Amino acid sequence: MRMVLTVKVKNKQTLRMFAAWLIIGLFLFAAPVGVLASIGSGTTNQTTSPAIGSGGLGDRTRAGDEASRTNRYEPGQTENQDQLGELNIANDVTITYNNGNGTITGSLRILLILTAIAVAPTLLICLTSFTRILIVLHFTRQALNTQTAPPNQVMIGISLFLTYFIMAPIFTQINNEAIKPFEQGRITQEEAIEIGLAPLRQFMYEQTQQKDARMFLEISGTEWNDEMELSDIPTQVLIPAFMVSELRTAFIIGFVIYIPFLVIDMVVASALMAMGMMMLPPTTISMPFKILLFVLADGWNLVIVNLVKTFY
Predict the structure, then answer these.
(1) What gap in Å lies between CA 148 and CA 145, rounded to an integer?
(2) Which residue among 29, 213, 222, 299 is least packed, with the fewest CB closer than 10 Å?
């Protein structure tokens, strides 16, 4: 009997503890729900309380009202073309015509400038003297065996300014004969492109070797004859022929620059072999002598000046 009573008491205590925890859990769950419900009802009442059309908050938050719409004034109507420009319609890219001569707005001009900037590197490499200058400077650095001296940024900068020096008369001619007359409306776009390409075509024609032009003409299916002039060669043929000629000329100049430094390498290698220093790299010993020879001969002046003269 004592065992049974003891078990019953213990079961009652467990039941009371379970009921107490259940009440606490319900209270903890019901309290946040009640708070959220009261907040939601208060917000709903606050939002829906002003009547539409009474000038309260509901009028100011409706889409299309004066406070929320993008246009401040009501759309207007026009009777002729002159009144259209006075309306507050939008900020747009427009082109206006006056007596057949087009004027480009500032937005469209910016778009054209950004497009030209994106295409400019390709035109700079393919249609100017930049390629030959950069390749020759690269061969000079390799012949000196100085690895990264001068660095690539310096070499590209020198090439850019030398290209500007060589191409400045051509760029000035294009600006005076094509760009300015087109902006003033004296010539059409097609005429501006044709006039602007003429100085570049003349420059490329003078630097292009005949066999390269003949090769690309034969590939394109155009018959070559010795009486062909610049006007007879299409631009799509002249540009690749000019690039191949520039590569050939640059490699020839690079080979000539390599010869004296190659002689120094051979002399140093022979001296090391004679002294039995076969494990010592010859380039380690020859590099100071190369730099000394280049400085004493004023090598940068010789290379750059004679390189520029090849375009005249």
Answers:
(1) 9
(2) 29
